[in-house]
Structures are given as C-alpha cells and as structure tokens.
Amino acid sequence: MPNQAFDESRRRLLRGRLRAAPPALRPPWSLADRFTDLCTRCGACVGACPEAILRAGDGGFPEIDFRQGECSFCAACADACPEPLFDRGADRPWTLVAAVGPSCLTARRVVCRSCGDACPESAIRFALEPNGVARPVLDASTCTGCGACLSACPVGAVTILTPSEAPHAA
Ligand code: SF4
Ligand code: SF4
Ligand code: SF4
After folding, report:
1. What are the structural domain ranges in the chain?
2. Which keywords does UniProt give here (predicted)?
C-alpha cells in the first residue's frame, strides 16, 4: 500500500538544502514524479540489484549510486518492487545522460580516455584540440545513462544528469 504523500521539496527546503542537493536518481523505469508518494521504502529493490548500485538514500528512499558501478538494465529492481511505481512499457528506462565536467584531465593537457573505454555504447568520442590533446565529446542521443563512465573517471569529472540538469542534452 502506498505510504502517505511525501512532500520532498518542502523537506529539503526546511533543511536548507534546496539549492545544494541535486535530485536523487531513482531506479530505471520508475515513475520519478510520483516516486516518494508510492514508494514504501521497503528496500526490496535495493536487495535485488545485482550491481549493488541501489542504496537507501535521503529519507530511506532508494537512490542510484553510480560510484558503485553501472546499471545493467536487468530490471531486477522493477521486478522486486511490490508497488505500482515502475513502468516497464516505457520507451526508455530513464532519461539520464552523462556529462563531462571541467575537471576532466584533458583540460589540463593530460591524455586520458578512461570514460570512452568504459562506455558500452561508444557514446563518447574524442576530438583533437589545438593543444594536441583529444577531449571527450558525448553523444547524448546514444548515451543510455548507464553510469559506467562515472566510476571509470580517475578524477570524478563525469556526472550523470537528469533532463532538468542537462537542458541542452537531447
Ligand atoms: S536495472 Fe538491474 S542493475 Fe539497474 S538498478 Fe535495477 S536491479 Fe540494479
Ligand atoms: S521495492 Fe519499490 S516500494 Fe520498495 S523501496 Fe524499492 S521502489 Fe520503494
Ligand atoms: S552513461 Fe553509459 S552510455 Fe552514457 S556515456 Fe557513460 S558509459 Fe556511455
């Protein structure tokens, strides 16, 4: 049975974290807009994830932690959930997309292709810059948001963004 309506925005505001906290990344195929209304925080999805990338986050609600690994889109989380908050009929499991930030080693003229090597979709290509070092360029239309590139980056330059955080990614 769904838990009581949960006003996440208000809770964050009261904690003074509205601007600091990025939106939590929910499991694939889950209904992000209704997640905290429908999720009972039972933890079944966390225990079911073979990649161990789901953990109990803020308020006990499950969140994806890509520092632990990547999503294989096995759907074990969706299958384990007893509540109606996963839509397996959706075109895509989610709309997350990767982004490479300014701390990328190539910005300091250090050769690195770790993120590209880790990407199973070949969504990251490398474009040669005038300084002689190739920098990563992400194809957002190919990226599945799996997160494999995030833990592969030696300096934490990769983030996985929601559409609201990456308005120019499509
Ligand atoms: S789809 Fe599979 S790997 Fe991805 S979060 Fe769910 S259980 Fe984990
Ligand atoms: S299995 Fe479903 S209800 Fe239980 S914590 Fe995960 S998302 Fe929430
Ligand atoms: S999130 Fe996955 S698909 Fe997207 S660039 Fe990173 S490794 Fe490739």
Report:
1. 8-80, 97-161
2. 4Fe-4S, Cytoplasm, Iron, Iron-sulfur, Metal-binding, Repeat
